[in-house]
Amino acid sequence: MLENLRQDVVDAYKNALAARENSYSPYSHFKVGAAVKFKGVEQVFYGCNVENASYGATICAERNAIWSGVAAVGKQDMEYLIVVADQEDPVPPCALCLQVISEFYDAEMPIYLGNLQGLKKVYKLKEILPVPFNSFVA
Questions:
Q1: Phi, psi of 44 (to 5 degrees)
Q2: Closest CA to 82 of 29, 9, 22, 23
Q3: What is the C-alpha radius of gyration for the chain, rounded to an integer number of angstroms?
Q4: 93-137 pLDDT, tens per residue?
Q5: What is the pLDDT of residue 105?
Q6: Which residues are catalytic?
Q7: What confidence tier does 88 reach under pLDDT thresholds 50, 70, 90?
């Protein structure tokens, strides 16, 4: 478990873990929960993955949380993101989610990865996505 985490990050992890339980994942059976905190916004937004028989219509927990936040408070820079899955070695956001995250990020933003036992790893966004697609936009 990561040491010396801020209490709001610990609380967000617990709520992302709870959101994970609401996952609708009858096809993959892979439940994921997420939490996103925007800079200057008190509220933390949560999401879970929601699958569909047409896999293209599936939404990951990370995008679910981000879009919930955008719907509530508009476009804001992200302060941190938390992803929780039932894996011994926690999983990072998928490439599609990383591209969405790159619309709301600071390259130094922490992405916390956890499992059912707690938060296990933290990366800066620039470590996971060193060259986002928007790097090429003038």
A1: -105, 140
A2: 9
A3: 14
A4: 999 999 999 888 788 999 999 999 999 999 999 999 988 887 665
A5: 75
A6: 62
A7: very high
Strand order in the sheet with 78-85: 44-48, 32-38, 78-85, 110-115, 118-124
Give the C-alpha separation, 57 to 22, whole Å. 18
Cβ pair 61, 96 in contact under 8 A: no
Question: Which of residues 104 and 138 earns the better pLDDT score?
Answer: 104
**Residue with token string 């990383």:** 98
Q: Is the distance from CB of 92 to CB of 54 less than 8 angstroms?
A: no
How far is Cα 96 from Cα 64, in angstroms, rounded to an integer?
Answer: 12
The predicted structure's pLDDT at residue 136: 60
Cα–Cα distance measured from residue 37 to residue 82, given in angstroms and rounded to the nearest whole number: 9
Measured distance CA(4)–CA(26) in Å, rounded: 36
Amino acid at 102: S
**CB neighbour list of residue 94: distance below 8 Å, 6 or more residues apart:** 60, 62
Judged against a pLDDT cut of 90, whether residue 48 lies above it is answered with yes
Query: Which tokens in the block code for residue 105?
Result: 């990020």
Averaged pLDDT for residues 53-76: 96
